[in-house]
Design a protein that fits this description.
about 600 residues, alpha/beta, ABC transporter transmembrane region fold, 6-stranded mixed sheet, 4-stranded mixed sheet, 19 helices, elongated, binds adenosine-5'-triphosphate, nucleotide-binding, membrane, ATP-binding, P-loop_NTPase, ATP-binding cassette transporter
Length: about 600
């Protein structure tokens, strides 16, 4: 996998560096989050979101009920009120049933919201990725790595609405925690006295209950400590995501090139490379493990201590006969709930950090999709003068970094002419064809194309869509647009008659057919579509001399009036053309081929 052109981008997406102003990133995160809620699916979005929030508040309500129940239950036991026992057990079962209902409803709503949101956002990204050939431009300029993974994985993580996960889940959780903190703070007020702090001979009395103040101090202290302990964990998690993505991309690269690797017997090298990539994951894993142990130990100590602090504060009051046993238990529960609600930030801190890394990667994808590179070469389809198929004027082809590649002052391809483009490797032949197809914007000048007929570009390596062989031949039409007899006759004509019976079989034809056979599939496609302008980029490079000649003869016989521009390295094939464009040293020379075959 070639590294992305933009190294800063790699560092940013790994969460290692923030290269963009915080305001811009916040604005992006806000737009990304809210976009779905103002989309055409807004009614369902808001309904599900409101339900989700309501269910979260319902959850808080059940915990408050449980707290009341605890108080009554332990008081009734202390006072040996056996008559209340069955009723209180029944009440407990009712509250538990309510809690189960809340969990079920929460799952139902959050899962539905997640997939609807993901579905909408995936469509939105897909539309933009395919628009204006951005998917091609991103690869051409290697703007970012793994856009596929961003569209699949990062959007999935971003839209997964669960507590402590997506920004929406975190926000709803925050609202629930505030409600919970207020409710349990109120319960605590009922059991605790005011906090008196002796300072320099004065006794400062803080209103609102000692339990509340202890909880606030404890949470503040705990949050600072846990955040500090958690920093290495967050860093490691971000790196983990990046290393995993690299490893996966490297595996795909080996899979795609398996044949060459097997031929050249470089398995050991490849294995070494992959293991080196995996070693990053392994090394990071150990660091992550230690960071996780530190964080888990810190959080566990924090939570355990949280449950005993209220006992130290309330049990003396119980011994002094100021409060009941039920109040001790209820205030202990309330203290824990209150402190946990206040500790919300500590709980969601790792999830929040992962979301930030996620959003950074989506921002890089957005930036690459939205970036508008000034188009140097004007592409004017359908604007060539009558009788002219391709009209190139003052063309200067440049590489993406601005280096000049080829200058072509004037080149007119008239209807019916057959041009061969020749030049050494790297001279810019394919780039010139890309400019003709409107896919190369770097440079200056203009390319106007014919307003009539159908144009077709055949590259050296043909794209065969997934599906049947018939499907591959009919592309870009649908298989059902053409009858089987026509396709069978074409297969015979291009010397692939052996596959007539397989034409409906869905197989990995791209892997199965040899490069030469694939080029014959291209010929079948040409003969089926009969374009008036045919652009061939080394379309016979994998064929033997006899089959290559058959290719050009078949095209000429079927479409004698077609305009053809082809790149070939074989001088014998030049004989099938009427004109020659010779590229040399960054310049082009046009000439006639006298003995046009
Ligand atoms: N996407 C790209 N980014 C950067 N450089 C590129 C890109 N595409 C092509 N080039 C460069 O432009 C030059 C011309 O490439 P091109 O593919 O047009 O050559 P060619 O004449 O078709 O070569 P060949 O006969 O080997 O196929 C090469 O040096 C190549 O590295």
């Amino acid at each position: 996998m070639p590294p992305p052109a933009n190294v800063e981008e790699t560092r940013r997406e790994a969460g290692l560096r923030t290269t963009q102003p915080a305001r811009e990133r916040f604005a992006h995160a806000w737009r990304l989050t809210t976009r779905y809620y103002v989309s055409e699916d807004w009614k369902a979005a808001w309904l599900l979101l409101i339900l989700y929030a309501a269910i979260s508040f319902g959850g808080v309500y059940t915990f408050i009920q449980l707290n009341h129940w605890q108080r009554e239950f332990f008081d009734s036991i202390e006072q040996r009120q056996s008559s209340l026992f069955v009723t209180l057990i029944f009440t407990f079962l009712m509250i538990s049933a309510l809690q189960v209902g809340v969990i079920v409803a929460n799952n139902l709503v959050s899962w539905t919201l997640s997939i609807r949101w993901r579905n909408w956002l995936t469509n939105w990204y897909m539309d933009r990725w395919f628009a204006r050939d951005r998917f091609y431009e991103i690869e051409r300029l290697r703007m970012i790595d793994n856009p596929d993974q961003r569209i699949a994985e990062d959007i999935k993580n971003f839209t997964l609405v669960t507590q402590g996960n997506s920004l929406v889940g975190i926000a709803v959780g925050l609202a629930g925690s505030l409600a919970s903190a207020i409710s349990f703070g109120y319960i605590l007020l009922q059991t605790s006295g005011s906090l008196v702090i002796p300072i320099a001979g004065y006794r400062i009395s803080l209103p609102g209950g000692d339990l509340i103040w202890f909880s606030i101090f404890y949470v503040l202290f705990g949050s600072v400590v846990i955040t500090w302990i958690g920093r290495p964990y967050i860093r490691r998690r971000m790196r983990e995501q990046h290393y995993e993505a690299d490893f996966r991309a490297n595996l795909i690269h080996v899979r795609r090139n398996s044949e060459q690797i097997a031929f050249s017997r470089t398995q050991d090298n490849e294995r070494g490379g992959l293991l080196a990539s995996f070693a990053n994951i392994r090394r990071n894993w150990y660091r992550l493990m230690w960071a996780n142990i530190g964080l888990s130990a810190g959080s566990s100590i924090y939570e355990r201590v949280m449950t005993v602090i209220p006992l130290f504060l309330t049990v003396p009051k119980f011994f002094a006969g100021q409060i009941s046993f039920g109040q001790v238990m209820a205030s202990r529960d309330a203290f824990t709930q209150f402190s946990s609600s206040l500790s919300y930030f500590v709980q969601v801190y790792p999830g929040l950090a992962e979301q930030i890394a996620n959003i950074n990667r989506l921002k890089a994808l957005d930036d690459s999709i939205d970036s508008e590179r000034p188009r140097g070469i004007a592409f004017r389809p359908g604007e060539a003068d009558e009788g002219i198929s391709i009209d190139v004027e003052k063309l200067e082809l440049r590489r993406p970094n601005g280096e000049p590649l080829l200058a072509l002052d004037e080149w007119k391809v008239r209807d019916g002419e057959r041009w061969v483009i020749e030049g050494s490797s790297g001279a810019g032949k394919t780039t010139l064809l890309r400019a003709i197809a409107g896919l190369w914007p770097d440079g200056a000048g203009s390319v106007a194309m014919t307003r009539h007929g159908v144009a077709m570009l055949v590259p050296q390596r043909l794209y065969l869509p997934l599906g049947s062989l018939k499907n591959a031949i009919c592309f870009p039409d649908r298989a059902e647009d053409h009858d089987d007899e026509t396709i069978a006759a074409l297969l015979e004509k291009v010397r692939l008659g052996a596959h007539v019976d397989d034409m409906h079989q869905v197989r990995m034809w791209q892997d199965e057919l040899s490069p030469g056979e694939q080029q014959r599939v291209a010929l079948a496609r040409i003969l089926l579509q009969r374009p008036t302008l045919l652009v061939l980029d080394e379309a016979t490079s994998a064929l033997d001399a006899d089959n290559a000649a058959h290719f050009y003869e078949a095209v000429r016989a079927a479409m004698p009036d077609a305009t053809i521009v082809s790149v070939v390295h074989n001088e014998k094939l030049a004989a099938y053309h009427t004109h020659r464009l010779q590229l040399h040293d960054g310049h082009a020379t046009a000439s006639m081929i006298e003995a046009g075959a």
